[in-house]
């Protein structure tokens, strides 16, 4: 297909800056105007290495002044804590909780408690770290916010979450060993969990601490008597399935049934090592790095991407949240300590999610040296298409790499610097060079991460894929594209899982889809999109045969010739009573058995659809697997019912991954 450089430049730009309203776009345009097109094309565009490009933007007189002028002004911009706002929100939470205790209807009581929980969550998010601001609550605003939320959670019957908040309250300064209130709340939390023995032990401790103040204990016992005990089943956590025949020792995260091969025209890609069956898990891989989209900072855990219910706050900023103290600790001990004070600056710049990932590869690394090693290995092994990049593209990515390097300088990633100036040291230039390489690699290798939103009524009807973030997967990046993929990709947290949606012969490509899919996009549109976004033209079977859109595919099917060693495809016979002559092997064959199997296959698809309707996910998966495997023994795509069955199988597999309710 004819190369369209302008369309490719548009696609490429979106992978650096997702929002043109951000200040980075203005920065880039100002620098481009200052250096002039002649210098850009005749000098910068002819530089041969990323190191030379980075050195150029910081040292060449045609460009360095506007670059340094902007980067000098990079400062922390983030949503700070506010003890007064936290205190006000806590007061609102107390107000709604008090109103709930006077509500006559259970429905009204729960609604008021939900309002109270919303305010308590905000109180937690805005409260500063303990002893940081002594002007309000004697520096204990965070502990008090967690304690307030624990009371609300008890009222909602969420004892386990209440216990977690009580523990956090003590961690952040609330007295527990001598606190009657603490043990009374603990007793109530155990009571709503239907753990009466533990509730009684907690109450006995409270009674001992209360001494002569028996009224407190009597009131607590009365409250417990009015609580509705609910023995909750532990929440079913999505688990990554086992790899087919174990893990491949030569290919991290991949199954033994696949292998990596390399050809001159396709580079390195994954094929079946031996026969694959439908449903075989071929990949289960954690990301090299993954980042949450800014739109979900308030609704999902910044670390594991889990949907938030009772957020745990970063101790220093109010812009992001975690699902647990564990996630908060893991993030704040590694990457978030460098990113924390710049979160709003990232958003304001308009930089794309891929820029977040490039930065994260360094901020999460155990050391600067580890960050350099990881980024350099990725640049060496993954495609970056340097041969098709325009000078404009290199300039834009170089400026972004410089901006990210400046963030690291200001965050003291490189340790204490002798000067506050931008001019980078030799090590800082290495990091900026590696960041530039990552920004090229990520354009073609990052995966969008999604979870499935389901309704209260049904796990399939009304479900919706929600893209939460993006990640880079080392082995996952080696899977090539086809316009009708042979695998289904879904996520368990941030872990990418791929399962086969058809049987594969040995050495057959195991393919994913990069976005342009035949069922929704015609051949010309797909080729333009792939060329513009990924710099290649597709020649998969779907493209070679130019399959029509899914809605336009008829019910006809092409059967394999039943003669031994013949690989010819035959049309559906007009008369089943008569044999069909194969033009390839020149034998007369009967297709009666193939047609009978097709009828059985379509019955399996119907049974699988009924299992989905009954929300029997695993049963539906098994039926789809059996039907699809049998279909490929007798026939070839495109076959409308089988294509729909493969789509439904993906839906079922995704339902076994990470889901959440709106």
Reconstruct the topology from this structure.
Elements: H1 5-14, H2 23-35, H3 37-42, H4 50-59, H5 64-71, H6 83-101, H7 106-126, H8 141-155, H9 159-171, H10 180-192, H11 196-210, H12 214-226, E1 258-263, E2 267-272, E3 281-285, E4 289-292, E5 312-313, E6 321-322, H13 325-332, H14 336-339, H15 343-349, H16 353-363, H17 368-381, H18 391-410, H19 426-445, E7 446-454, E8 464-472, E9 487-492, E10 495-500, H20 523-534, H21 541-544, E11 558-560, E12 569-571, E13 580-581, E14 588-589, H22 592-613, H23 617-634, E15 635-636, H24 640-655, E16 659-661
Parallel strand pairs: 7-16
Antiparallel strand pairs: 1-2, 3-10, 4-8, 5-6, 7-8, 9-10, 11-12, 11-15, 13-14
Helix pairs in contact: 4-5, 4-18, 4-19, 6-7, 6-8, 7-8, 8-9, 8-10, 9-10, 10-11, 10-12, 11-12, 16-17, 16-19, 17-19, 18-19, 22-23, 22-24, 23-24
Summary tags:
662 residues, three-stranded antiparallel sheet, alpha+beta, Serine Threonine Protein Phosphatase 5, Tetratricopeptide repeat
Report on the structure:
- GO terms for molecular function: histone deacetylase binding; methyltransferase activity; zinc ion binding.
- One of its GO terms (biological process) is negative regulation of gene expression.
- Helix 4 (about 50-60) crosses helix 18.
- The chain has 4 domains: about 1-75 and about 295-445, no CATH class; about 85-225, Serine Threonine Protein Phosphatase 5, Tetratricopeptide repeat, CATH 1.25.40; about 260-285 and about 475-545, Beta-clip-like (Beta Complex); about 550-655, Alpha Horseshoe (Serine Threonine Protein Phosphatase 5, Tetratricopeptide repeat).
- The two termini are about 45 Å apart.
- The radius of gyration is 30 Å and the shape is flat.
- The model has no long low-confidence stretch (mean pLDDT about 95).
- The chain is α+β, with helices and mostly antiparallel strands and about 650 residues long.
- A 4-stranded mixed β-sheet has the order 4-8-7-16.
- It is about 45% helix and about 10% strand.
